[in-house]
Write a structure and sequence with these properties.
41% of the residues lie in helices and 21% in strands. The longest helix is centred in the N-terminal third of the chain and has 23 residues, at 97-119. It is α+β, with helices and mostly antiparallel strands.
């Protein structure tokens, strides 16, 4: 019989593996931000800046000393990270680049069909020219293709050029060397990825082993589908085949208790008992999580373990939204206690709070209100505004 993990143990383990038991007041020392991102595996990117962009909110939730310039330095100066896709656009440790070469090859056929269906085939005729231009003249942005002084590129339709750049990036021929605002700057991959990672090759078996093992290390426990989805690098059948080849010293099984006391069996990393025996306490403070935080990403797993139903409603018509356009989960200790609708209004210099919803059985005590107000003050600072303002008639319950 596999060991049984209580619901609280499971929640605490997930938060620990995802960097949320780190003391949030602690500043990053040399190399510590890179270590944290390596621990997470990747940090998802998003262009929406409701308070701050998702990548910055994810890291700020783990250290209030974090500033966006810290991430920029790791990407653009130190080349410690590169930008590509997991299940979505993300920054990823450059040391993982050899494994992404396999993704580029595996997904090329699917990307060919996707881009052709979306754009038509015209973009393909520009790929060789773009690669030659970037090789000779250096990095460029998509908007550079629309300028009359760009020589031969003047004849190109902007959308074809942009599609070609995106295709070349998604298939690993180009990289994102930097961003100006949120505008991508494209360069040759070999100029953006450090040589020791760009030139390293791994074979198929090593690639599959790493994809499975590293995902399970970060999940703690999961199904074959959970392991497959973590990086979006390999199929569920490949995960199952890998598990069958492992001995009990590499993959175990555990029974986990859900929020509603039901139990499920999962595959687990082999040292899970040792991890559970030495879990640090989760910080008691309230923290705002990005909708794209890795703890939030798997919505079914989140609801089963934390009892927290969350859906982002950006694409839901306003009249059909249950909560709001961009609503942030609230983490207190090892529990998700509610959600908040807020936005940094930079012109006005305020963090505007529209609504707050607490979960059933969560009450707004004086101590909890103090913790929430302290976190909103921190969020205001992250968002570059000076104060917090609750809108008149804002829901506070």
């Amino acid at each position: 019989m596999s060991m049984i993990i209580s619901n609280q143990q499971a929640r605490r383990l997930i938060l620990h593996l995802q960097g949320l038991t780190r003391p949030p007041h602690k500043a990053f020392g040399p190399g510590e931000l890179g270590d944290l991102i390596t621990q997470l595996g990747y940090v998802q990117l998003d262009s929406i800046q409701w308070v701050e962009r998702a990548q910055h909110m994810i890291l700020f939730a783990r250290s209030q000393a974090y500033r966006p310039k810290h991430l920029t330095k790791l990407i653009e100066k130190e080349r410690f990270l590169f930008e590509n896709w997991t299940h979505d656009a993300a920054v990823i440790p450059s040391s993982f680049y050899p494994y992404w070469r396999h993704k580029f090859v595996r997904h090329k056929e699917k990307l060919d069909a996707k881009f052709t269906n979306w754009q038509g085939g015209g973009y393909l005729s520009h790929c060789d020219g773009l690669m030659a231009t970037i090789a000779e003249n250096g990095a460029l942005r998509s908007r550079d293709l629309d300028r009359p002084d760009t020589g031969p590129m003047e004849m190109w339709q902007w959308h074809d050029g942009k599609a070609a750049l995106e295709y070349l990036w998604r298939t690993g021929q180009l990289c994102i060397s930097q961003r100006e605002g949120f505008q991508k700057v494209y360069d040759l991959a070999e100029r953006g990825i450090p040589d020791e990672h760009f030139n390293r090759e791994v074979d198929h078996d090593e690639f599959v082993d790493w994809a499975c093992r590293s995902a399970l290390e970060r999940l703690g426990f999961g199904t074959a589908a959970d392991i497959s989805r973590y990086w979006d690098l390999i199929s569920i059948s490949e995960v199952r085949d890998w598990i069958e080849r492992q001995g009990g010293d590499r993959v175990g099984t555990v029974t986990v208790v859900g929020q509603k006391k039901d139990q499920k069996e999962f595959f687990a990393r082999p040292d899970i008992a040792d991890l559970l025996a030495d879990l640090p306490d989760s910080p008691a403070r309230i923290r705002v999580l990005s909708p794209f935080d890795p703890v939030i990403r798997n919505r079914n797993r989140l609801e089963w373990l934390f009892g927290f139903e969350y859906r982002i409603e950006i694409y839901v018509p306003e009249e059909k939204r249950r909560w709001g356009y961009y609503v942030f989960p609230l983490l207190e200790g090892d529990k998700l206690i509610g959600r908040i609708d807020m936005r940094a209004k930079r012109k006005e210099g305020v963090l505007e709070v529209k609504s707050l919803w607490l979960e059933p059985k969560v009450k707004m005590s004086t101590a909890r209100a103090d913790r929430l107000n302290a976190e909103l003050t921190r969020q205001a600072r992250l968002g570059g505004v000076n104060s917090v303002v609750w809108l008149e008639g804002a829901h506070k319950y």
